[in-house]
Amino acid sequence: MWKCKTPEDSQDKQLAIEYFEKKGVEARLFPKTSAMPNPDLKLYIDGNLFAYCELKSIMPYELELPSNFPSGQIYQTLHNDPTFNSIQNKIHEASKQLKSVNPDHDLSNIVFFVNHQKYRGIQDLRWVIKGLPSEKAPDVFDPTYLRRLFEKDDLSVVDYIVWIDSFSNKAFYYVRSESPFRDILKQRISSKACEILTKPFI
Question: pTM of the entire structure?
Fold first, then answer.
């Protein structure tokens, strides 16, 4: 289904382009010349194609919890949380777009999240990647509700995730430990788990 572009789409793409520019990486918009689900950006270092990047925006209206959400039952009901499902779906969509242009995974694949929801953050991404924390053993994570990501092997497609909270001037990072591009990604983008940006982008 065709999706109507919003002003936030253009703003977030510009944010991503400027962000990579500060890291010494040139980001070029991917030409939309076919019906294939291509990613948003091609990334270059010294004129050489380095990685593909798909941008995913998280808007406030996507992640509103129901007014009757049982706050005392967060662990039992998190798999029904719109945040959990939305982020998981966005990773699934991104993996398909990245596979379409990089089927042999010869170059690194990056997902760039721009979060506009003040009541959601990097912890939600961690739970999507690692699984839900157990109520009785918070250090134990249950991946039961991540079947879609595991069945499609979506996480193996993604080498690196950049998560920017547009309202807090912070960027967070996730690098897949099995990625063959791990070292170069950490070297060129960030080796930190969290980075305070020099100035707000938005």
Answer: 0.82
